[in-house]
Amino acid sequence: MYKRLLLILGLIMATLPAMTMQTYTLEAVLSFGTFDPLKGPPPTANGDIIFSCAGGGYFDGWVFLTPGSSNNYNVRTMIFLGGKKVTYNLYANPSYTEIWGNGQNGTYGYCLRNVPCNGSQNDLPIYGKIINGQTGAYVGKYIDSIEIYNQVDDCAVGGVGMM
Question: Which of 74, 2, 78, 83 is nearest to 45 (CA)?
């Protein structure tokens, strides 16, 4: 008999006011689905962070993620009832090499340039991967909460980068 795990990562929606009376909405959900840690490669998950801005004008700035319950950008942790953990990470690129964090200490953020604040939706791709070799996981639903936040800043180029 083998173990199956259902892993879900819930990213918190945040609405943040700006000095110019613009409002920003960021939200996402990323699910790794069910997998057997004893068979095959670790699962990956792809999704989008949905960013929208309202209030007129344009947005220039960064979209960042917090480290979640682990307080560590390099090894994020999903937790199951009873304290069991599964480690994973979130990436800004599909090759899983650019950890999405706060744009500092080797982590990356997503720079948005000239985004109209007219309520339209902008999808920012996000990639997740379970760290390989976790045979001590129990069957169940593992969860971590990551806050998504933005920082108004004149970032130099659009796309993935560091501050």
Answer: 78
